[in-house]
Amino acid sequence: MGTPLDTREAQAEEVIDRLYEEYPDSTISLNFSNRLELLIAVMLSAQCTDERVNQETAHLFEKYETVEDYAEADEDELSEELGSITYHNSKADYIKSSARTIIDEYDGEVPDTMEGLTDLKGVGRKTANVVLQHGYDIVEGVVVDTHVQRISRRLGITEDERPEDIEQDLMGIVAEEHWQQYTHLFISHGRATCTARNPDCGDCVLEDLCPSSKLDHDVDLASGESWD
Predict the structure, then answer these.
(1) Binding site membership: which residues?
(2) Whole-model pTM?
């Protein structure tokens, strides 16, 4: 029976404990070797799979090695390099513009603050949080991607809908020591079991806690719609 615990804090804690056990090696899946590559990879990952991004950056990072390479790149050529990436034209613009800002305002170094990172074109809190966490070991918030958004709502941990609101809500519910790993655990679970369209509730370690379980409930709290 999918029944959540009495408080959202208790629900979140139990969910995290179970997911730690289920996915002990969960971590970021983007490939990078320095902070600039991390920033580029995360920018490219917006509305695109990490697998696809890794395929493209394998050759991209060989051709463009420095921030100057990106700043001076021909934008059309850079866009072509990113041909299979979602919104590659816009992302080429973001990357070139951000590289120029990094050179002009940050001495060629990827910023190490939320304010500095979100000052870059095309960089919001989600991207900035990832760069801070994995580039500088600074944890200022929770990265809210589509998996975190979907599963947090399905489990009744939050009722908010906008990523920015969800992040602020989670920061008041989830213990700070778990902020970084929360994202990785939910991504792992979202890929393996709690998929967007057809979650495998029968094989889910959280089914008995889930108020959206297809085995017991008619409505997916993530979307507010009835299960097919």
Answers:
(1) 194, 201, 204, 210
(2) 0.93
pLDDT in tens, the chain (228 residues): 799 999 999 999 999 999 999 999 999 999 999 999 999 999 999 999 999 999 999 999 999 999 999 999 999 999 999 999 999 999 999 999 999 999 999 999 999 999 999 999 999 999 999 999 999 999 999 999 999 999 999 999 999 999 999 999 999 999 999 999 999 999 999 999 999 999 999 999 999 999 999 999 999 999 999 998
Q: Is residue 126 among the annotated active site residues?
A: yes
Burial (CB count within 10 angstroms: exposed 0-12, middle 13-18, buried 19+), residue 6: exposed
- Active-site residue among 50, 145, 169, 220? 145
**Active-site residue (options: 50, 126, 169, 220):** 126
CB 97 within 8 A of CB 104: no
Binding positions for [4Fe-4S] cluster are 194, 201, 204, 210
Catalytic (active site) residue 63:
no
- Do 125 and 118 form a contact (C-beta atoms < 8 A)? yes
Domains of the chain listed by start with CATH number: 8-26+143-223 (1.10.1670.10), 35-136 (1.10.340.30)
Structure tokens at 141: 């918030």
